[in-house]
């Protein structure tokens, strides 16, 4: 599903709902951005977790039942330990997708250049600030340097998560 659809749904459903329950003049907030991101990454994370759970060999499940384990014990002692690498990878990939998201969050977060006082306050996110202001920042100026520093920090965060995924993947493989 494209990001614009998540942003539009957040703008038409979530923002008015947050305005209503918070009693504030608007519903644009950090909370709205967080909820939209959660809804965006959830399908990816669920699909990857489901694949990880399904990759546990049927023989291991049947062996647990054969030893007298209940369904809960089989899940706790066989499926979860075997699938934990895939589950953690799903979590990291979901976070990685959320870090670079600009459009959907920008639509619901308020685009205010202020540090939020609480979760129901508007603010801006790094990716939308970089995207919207990079063209207008004077080359060689302090603001241009700040935008490049923000871009570098996003790059470094993404790179760290790529390395984490690689490390998790190498742990999950059995060396022959």
Please, could you describe this protein's structure?
The model has no long low-confidence stretch (mean pLDDT 87). The chain is mostly helical. The protein is 73% helix and 0% strand. The two termini are 40 Å apart. The protein contains seven helices and no strands.
Can you tell me the overall shape? flat
Overall pLDDT confidence: 87
Largest sheet: none
Helix content: over 70%
Summarize the structure.
With 176 residues, the protein is mostly helical. It has 7 helices and no strands.
Quickly list its features.
176 residues; mainly alpha; 7 helices
How is the secondary structure organized here?
Layout: H1 3-22, H2 30-54, H3 58-66, H4 71-99, H5 103-109, H6 126-133, H7 142-172
Helix pairs in contact: 1-2, 1-5, 2-4, 2-5, 3-4, 4-7, 6-7
């Amino acid at each position: 599903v494209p990001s614009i659809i998540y942003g539009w749904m957040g703008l038409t459903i979530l923002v008015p709902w947050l305005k209503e329950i918070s009693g504030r003049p608007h519903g644009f907030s950090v909370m709205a951005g967080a909820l939209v991101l959660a809804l965006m990454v959830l399908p990816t994370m669920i699909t990857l977790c489901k694949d990880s759970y399904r990759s546990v060999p049927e023989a291991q499940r049947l062996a647990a039942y054969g030893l007298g384990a209940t369904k809960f014990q089989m899940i706790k002692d066989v499926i979860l330990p075997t699938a934990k690498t895939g589950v953690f990878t799903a979590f990291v990939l979901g976070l990685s997708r959320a870090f670079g998201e600009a459009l959907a969050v920008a639509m619901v977060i308020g685009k205010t250049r202020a540090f939020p006082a609480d979760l129901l306050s508007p603010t801006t996110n790094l990716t939308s600030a970089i995207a919207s202001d990079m063209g207008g920042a004077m080359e060689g100026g302090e603001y241009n340097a700040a935008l490049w520093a923000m871009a570098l920090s996003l790059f470094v965060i993404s790179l760290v998560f790529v390395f984490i995924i690689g490390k998790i993947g190498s742990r999950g493989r059995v060396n022959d």
